[in-house]
Amino acid sequence: MDLPITFCLSALIRKFDNVFKNICIKAYVMNPELENDQKAVLCLTVEEDLIPTFYKLLSQGFTVKARVGCTLRELLCRQLGLSADYIEQRVQTIFLDGKAVDNIDTAVVRQGSTLALSAAMPGLAGATLRRGGAYASMRSQISYEGTPVPDHVKDGELVLKLFNLVARELGPRFLEQGVWINGKNLQGFFQQAPDSFWAGCRAAELNGQLFDIDRLAKMEWAQQQVFVTLTQT
User: Fold this and answer.
1) SS3 for 145?
2) What is the pLDDT along the chain (233 residues), one digit of tens a residue?
3) pTM of the full predicted structure?
4) Could you tell me the CA-to-CA distances from 13 to 100, 126, 191 in Å, in that order?
């Protein structure tokens, strides 16, 4: 009787493991077309209905500069500005460095950590991964074992990944403020974008200079980190 449950849970865990491999770190780039400028800032003006297409990039991961060495609650509430009600009611699944988190008051965010936030997922596997859920004991091997004693709090970076409803609700704010995106992910995103995407992309600036939209998909973004901001028309 345990086999279907174990298989379903293992498949979902492998999915998360694959997602965690795409890690964004430093916000510096090297690109022949940028000559000696090692910082790339890409500002896009797009139609409102294109915003959801960028959520794929948010699920792959973007770098956030924050105070690290603190508890997860400190990061989510005081630094990212999420309300306690939103965290309790909406953010039902949390992975920190590949481990499912149940208690955000004992989980400590460290330099270079990878944090994934998701709303409730369907099925038994989703119920098993839900933090503080009745089935949490079934995934004890991948549960986060935190310490109530935080590290020394300091400036640092972490990788944030947003999924499903959390991405739809929080994504627009992050995209408007700007996010550091892995260049390989950005290049794949542009290369796979349909014609309807380019029709809704109204303007582009690269490092403060107007940039030909048609060249975005032809740029060599791989091995780079790009700060992307969106403005909707």
Assistant:
1) coil
2) 443 433 344 444 444 444 333 323 223 233 334 433 446 999 999 999 999 999 999 999 999 999 999 999 999 999 999 999 999 999 988 999 988 888 899 899 999 999 999 998 766 565 566 666 554 555 555 566 766 555 688 999 999 999 999 999 999 999 999 999 999 999 999 999 999 999 999 999 999 999 999 999 999 887 789 999 999 98
3) 0.78
4) 10, 10, 28
Q: How many CB atoms lie within 10 A of CB 137?
A: 9
146 is in which domain, residue-wise? 3-232
What is the number of domains present in the chain?
A: 1
Within 8 A by CB and 6+ apart from 129, the residues are 9, 12, 93, 100, 121, 139
Cα 194 from Cα 66, distance rounded (Å): 35
Q: Using CA atoms, how far apart are residues 138 and 128, in angstroms rounded to an integer? A: 7
